[in-house]
Specification:
Length: 267
């Protein structure tokens, strides 16, 4: 076998084991594979050093690494990895064609819809025509102490952690964001997905109101950066919750949140 034959038969897989390379996004990862640049926490582009600029791959090669190559690496190439009859596959709709968009515009491609097992699980705001059978979940009443223009607290419930869809106070701490339910509900877990640049030590307090009485249930005091998740899980699901409030007491950056996820413990 010649050297060229060995190279041609080599299967290269991409993997996403990079919790420190935030924000985590397959589209941003593809951009990095192709251009060797990187999307920073604030969504600016970190240009690659000169010695890396010739190390990119084509979009076609990058997509193969992220699909068929990754399936091969976990020995599941007969089950997933390509849209082939008999295989499992999720379906998504993007705002542009990754094969034709200029490489420097790849980070601007947005996710519009995700279908898993034939069910539409995510639908971006304004993309309802691409979302068959999708019923938007009821959004609780969310408010904040302050909010920056076009970054209101409602963006913490838009189902997206990419691009510009995050809520921002537009001012220094202390600031709070509050969620009020139309009816008393049960909470099994609440997850706050951080949007923060620059990273820093932060202090947050989570309070809940149950049957009219407020109580402090968690204090988060740690170093945080964009993409981190602050999770509160009561020992047992907490019933009759009417409101919860997250107050950021200390932070080097403006208090900002990509998303707030609420688990009620129901199926």
């Amino acid at each position: 076998m010649t050297s060229s034959q060995r190279t041609r038969d080599l299967v290269i897989a991409w993997h996403g084991d990079d919790p420190w390379a935030t924000p985590v996004s397959p589209i941003y990862e593809l951009f990095s594979l192709v251009t060797r640049g990187r999307v920073a926490d604030d969504r600016s582009i970190c240009e690659p050093p000169d010695w890396m600029t010739d190390g990119g791959v084509s979009v076609e090669q990058g997509l193969a690494m992220m699909t068929t190559g990754s399936a091969y690496a976990i020995r599941q190439e007969d089950v997933v990895g390509s849209p082939t009859p008999g295989k499992y596959a999720d379906l998504l709709v993007l705002s542009d064609n990754l094969l034709t968009v200029p490489s420097d515009q790849i980070p601007n491609v947005e996710l519009l819809m995700t279908m898993i097992g034939g069910t539409t699980e995510f639908c971006a705001r304004g993309a309802e025509q691409w979302c068959p059978g999708f019923e938007a979940p009821e959004v609780p009443d969310v408010s904040a102490s302050l909010s920056r223009a076009d970054h209101g607290p409602e963006l913490a419930f838009d189902g997206s952690v990419n691009g510009e869809t995050f809520c921002s106070s537009g001012a220094d701490a202390p600031q709070w964001i509050q969620v009020q339910f139309p009816e008393s509900t049960t909470i099994a877990e609440v997850r706050f997905i951080v949007f923060q640049n620059p990273p820093s030590d932060t202090v947050h307090e989570l309070e809940v109101r149950v049957d009219g009485d407020w109580s402090l249930v968690e204090t988060f005091q740690e170093f945080t950066t964009a993409g981190d998740v602050l999770t509160w899980t009561p020992a047992t699901p907490l019933d009759n919750v009417q409101v919860f409030k997250m107050t950021t007491l200390e932070s080097l950056s403006w208090p900002e949140w990509c998303e707030i996820e609420i688990d009620t413990g129901s199926e």
